[in-house]
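Hi C.,

You asked whether I'd gotten around to modeling the 121-residue construct. I have! Everything is below, sequence then structure, no commentary in between.
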Amino acid sequence: MKRVLIVTRELLLREGVESLLSREVDIKVHGTQFIDESTLAKEIDRYHPDVVILDERLEYTDLTNLFDLLIDYPRIRVMVVNVIDNKVNVYDKSEFELAHSYDFVSAIRRGATYVGDDFLR
């Protein structure tokens, strides 16, 4: 089972992703309100996620600092969501455009960095 931690200040984004993923029997979702990098580290230690979904628009923080923190957790796949452009950046800087909600679910399940060509635009 894949464990997913959603990190955002946006209630609608968190609840939307939780709702989308809650239909999947092989994915367990934990949502959290982003406060600071220290709290994020505690949440990671608490839930041991396979995937961390970050909102690109996190205010009052620098995503670079978050990525520096996540270096201590090399097994975690990081996906940065940009809801304005319908894009998801994966930690290794690969990017794909979401055409459908199942593209997002497929990206969470895959262990590979790149999503199939059918998702690229």
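If it helps when you're writing up: Residues 112-121 have pLDDT under 50 and may be disordered.

Thanks,
B.
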